[in-house]
Design brief:
1 helix, alpha+beta, 74 residues
Amino acid sequence: MYVTNCHGWIKSTKTEIRVRLEPLEQPKRRAAQEQLCRKLTNLGARLPSGKWLMVEVGEAPSNVRDGMKVSKKS
């Protein structure tokens, strides 16, 4: 599995789109994944809707039904 090929969840609020990626198992790849996500978030990207893009690595939300939707990339 590659840094950009993983499962994740998306949560949208009035001000931001938060993308949480499932952590990779191999420590070196997970470190690269976390570094890439921090870099993307620190770039301060705004979507055409005006919302901020936040990218993070973490476990599945405890309650996926609270506005977070499962997105599977094939």
